[in-house]
Write a structure and sequence with these properties.
The chain has 333 residues and is of the alpha+beta class. It contains three helices and 19 strands. Helix 2 runs antiparallel to helix 3. The radius of gyration is 40 Å and the shape is elongated.
Length: 333
Amino acid sequence: MKKFFLRPLAVLSAMAVLALTGCGKNDDSAEISIPILETSAPVYNTVTAQTGDISEKYYGEASFGISHDSYVKFSRSGQIAQINVQNGDQVKKGDVLCVLRSEDIEEQIEESDVWLKQSKETYEKLLAKNTPATELEYARIDYELQKLSREQLDRELAEYTITAPCDGQVTAVNDYERELNVNTKVWGGDWLCIVSDNSENVLSCRMLQKVDSIGYGTRAIITTLSGEVEGMVTNVREKGEGNTQTYIYEIRCDEQDLKAFNKVDVCFDVYDKEDVVKIPAKAVKTIQERKYVNLLIDGVKVEQDIETGIEDGDMVEVTNGLVGGEEIIINGE
């Protein structure tokens, strides 16, 4: 004879069914009430798309310091024959920093001297005689070509000697994790060292990213405790490589009293526009190449594609997609 056992969960389920059934028998009008979770309508923070003026401006700090760094590079490939530079050296413009082995070019120069001497003697002999004009002209042309060839070799020989481009201090020697010494192989375009020009201090602003719209002639508004003065960008240069790369914007300003300040605030006033549609930059959403904003229309969030122009601090110009007056959602996705 088989025995059957009821599991506790099954017993509880059965009791619940009986209880509900019993209730149904006692009151046919009873109904089961299922609560419905009610949610409140989303609350959005919005702003209105404005129409007004906007300026493309960038901000930074500037200070007086070394005007610029010069990267001293090898003009050609070769082996080092002599190196006279170390980190921290003080150098003068024209000082010889490094010399490459030049045996090959020197042999070419010796050979060229022979041909030059021979062509010169030939031309002078023909010139002294009653030589036909055509033959004399050929001799003259040959002589001129030999001189040009010799001058070209002199220019090439000069590339084997690397000199300091300015007065200053050597701030780095490029070793690519190897020591630069006699017989080290180098390649054209490699840099030997960096020389910081200390002949003149200029007002410079350092930025981590290059701003293409800031260039020569860009207006710079300099703010100090004494007030505002205007300057102009006179040079843009790069410093360092890779993660250490920065961009230096040199500013010319006639106000000499600025040298009394350790640092000053600078605003690069690049471009001004009037009567444009502008919205907070934080309202603009970006997905790959697409830009859009969320509009609030009759309580409903609607995506609207836009195109943008210049930025001014927290505001951005909308060149297409809005006409002004739209209600823009600035919170939520």
